[in-house]
Amino acid sequence: MKALIFDIDGVVLNSPHETTFGKALKKMGIEGFTPEIYHMVASGRPRMKGAENILKELKIFKKVKDLKERQALVKKLYDLKQEFMDECIEKGQFTVFDSAVKIIKEAKRKGILIIAASSSKNAKKMLIKAGIYKLFDYDILGADLEHGKPAPDIFLLAAKAANLKPKDCIVFEDAPAGVEAAKAAGMFCIGVASHGHREWLKGADAVVDDLSEVSLNSLVEMHGKV
Fold first, then answer.
1. What is the chain's mean pLDDT, rounded?
2. pTM for the complete prediction?
3. Which residues contact 64 (CB under 8 A, 6 or more apart)?
């Protein structure tokens, strides 16, 4: 175990993505959005893809057949959501998971690399606002990859940046798409069910409700058994 790779939203930060999507959809007059829809089709995915998936899941495209109209709806949802996100970030309306920071600091003391890997282009701004951005040795945040999660590209890029093999890394993820991406990259994955739904992360090698449930020693032991 040479590196810990952290998704940010839902693992290091309790970010307002779900809430801001909900506000944007409400402003557009679209109903039916739920936490499960967010986590299953949007969480962890690139920003525009997440917006598109939500509209698909809510069956909005059944009423809108024209491709340009669909694209305009996706952009409108994303733009509204981003307006609400910018407001939340400016006001500091998000929290840090102390248990994540604790294990990051413990790992750094042992010389283990810490990598931030998130498709969110808001993650870096929030980490800086929270004063913890400098804890990360490598930053793979908001990267414009050809294939977003659940493809493994972002985690393979993280390993490459640190000059490590996938088997040397442990990934922490809260999203089903992120777990799938980590496993596709050939990495050990800890699912963090901060949303309260362990069953959504069944593809992970281990699942915890909070990172306070693991220690550096337990991670070394679990990783060594794979």
1. 94
2. 0.91
3. 70, 73
